[in-house]
Amino acid sequence: MAREIDFHEIECFLVLAEELHFGRTGERLRVSQSRVSQLIRSLEGRVGARLVERTSRRVRLSEFGADFLESLRPSYGALVSVFEDARSRARSTVERVRIGFQGAVYEPLARALTVFERRNPPVAVDLVEIPLADPFGAVREGGVDAAVVLTPVREPDLTLGLTFSRQPQTLALSSSHPFAGREEIGAEELARVRLVPLAGRAPAYWRQVNSPRVTPGGARIPQEGGAVTLQEGLSLVAAGRGALLVCGAAAEYNRRPDVTYVPVTGLAASELALVWRTAARGSRLTAFAAVLAETVA
């Protein structure tokens, strides 16, 4: 019996009973007037009686149609209520996993998120951007369940679930900078470049790798201003306010005509890492780490 019920026809009849006008009914349902007529005729065929009387001057319900409407309205309302209640309960049972990222959601991470959600239907992943200059704060304070951050990671209360995307470090420069036409820059030449420092709570060991104050040889690197996020830093670079060290993935996913990326030799390669609070470790996080490992393999 359920297979004989077409809810498009039911909805169309209920709206037509309110409007008593085929054109306005079509507008509300976002279908053509002829489609409204088709749905009503089909419903009348299923019921076995005329529900609507239509003349060139007016539309009204037949006596049978009025009786049908009186019985149908509360039943349809109850059905809609049951459906909405079920959908609400289904949403409340979804387990949400919050993954932090710095600057951009790189393609391997995006693929991993899709695969992870497909394999774990009760789980939905929320993406949360975290400051470039504060890689561990959101994880430590519970703002996210895990985060993909730049290495190194030497935090005793955090678990390093996976490292990936090992690439040479790259210097983001204004396209008008004298070094913008170079194929590469040596690490000691950073002393001739004014860097935009990262203004946040990143530990000193992390800063020395990702926003160094001195070259490997000990020469001081000039610094001016400060940036909290990657986009803020790149905006300062584009305005000629300094240069910014970024990982290879950031350079690849943040192409713009006013910024040039030049590889830097003589520095440790950059890597990304998935980290979470050791105390909050759970099967969902380890499962996500496994999926991400598959994706970047």
From TrEMBL:
<feature type="domain" description="HTH lysR-type">
    <location>
        <begin position="5"/>
        <end position="62"/>
    </location>
</feature>
<comment type="similarity">
    <text>Belongs to the LysR transcriptional regulatory family.</text>
</comment>
<protein>
    <submittedName>
        <fullName>Transcriptional regulator, LysR family</fullName>
    </submittedName>
</protein>
<dbReference type="InterPro" id="IPR036390">
    <property type="entry name" value="WH_DNA-bd_sf"/>
</dbReference>
<dbReference type="Pfam" id="PF00126">
    <property type="entry name" value="HTH_1"/>
</dbReference>
<keyword id="KW-0238">DNA-binding</keyword>
<dbReference type="GO" id="GO:0003700">
    <property type="term" value="F:DNA-binding transcription factor activity"/>
</dbReference>
<dbReference type="Pfam" id="PF03466">
    <property type="entry name" value="LysR_substrate"/>
</dbReference>
<keyword id="KW-0805">Transcription regulation</keyword>
<dbReference type="GO" id="GO:0003677">
    <property type="term" value="F:DNA binding"/>
</dbReference>
<dbReference type="InterPro" id="IPR000847">
    <property type="entry name" value="LysR_HTH_N"/>
</dbReference>
<keyword id="KW-0804">Transcription</keyword>
<dbReference type="InterPro" id="IPR005119">
    <property type="entry name" value="LysR_subst-bd"/>
</dbReference>
<dbReference type="GO" id="GO:0032993">
    <property type="term" value="C:protein-DNA complex"/>
</dbReference>
<dbReference type="InterPro" id="IPR036388">
    <property type="entry name" value="WH-like_DNA-bd_sf"/>
</dbReference>
